[in-house]
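Service request form, structural biology core

Requester: graduate student, group of Dr. S.
Request type: structure prediction, single chain
Budget code: on file
Notes: please return the result as structure tokens.

Sequence provided:
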Amino acid sequence: MSPPRLSTLVAVLLGGLFLAGILIPTGTHPGPSKEQATTKSLLSDIMTACYIYRSEYGMFPKVDDAAQLWRKLEGENPRKLRFFSPRDSGETGFRDAWDRPITVRNRSAYMELRSAGKDGIFFTKEDLVLDFSPEGLRRGVRD
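Core staff response, request fulfilled:
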């Protein structure tokens, strides 16, 4: 496996710093729930695995859904490399801390990872979303 490119490392570092700012509560503002923090961490881990995949193959995994992304990162790729080791995810896809599926949208210019969040309904204010592109993090996990 070739060493990661500098741009990949910078993007991952910036994403990690951004998430650290979200995950560490400051002042009297309450921090995220345990489920939110766990899901944000999982989204960040998936993004990191996609960047490592990109450093190996020169592009993000080409996928239509989360199950395909799961398989590509778990070793169903040209060199049979594992880019992601599951924690509490299911065997056929990524699951958030509420045990619901995480969706993947693979756009031409970026990828989007989305958890339905606490309410379990996609495309509401409760969603946890991470957008990233080959140039770097588009938007950190927003909720």
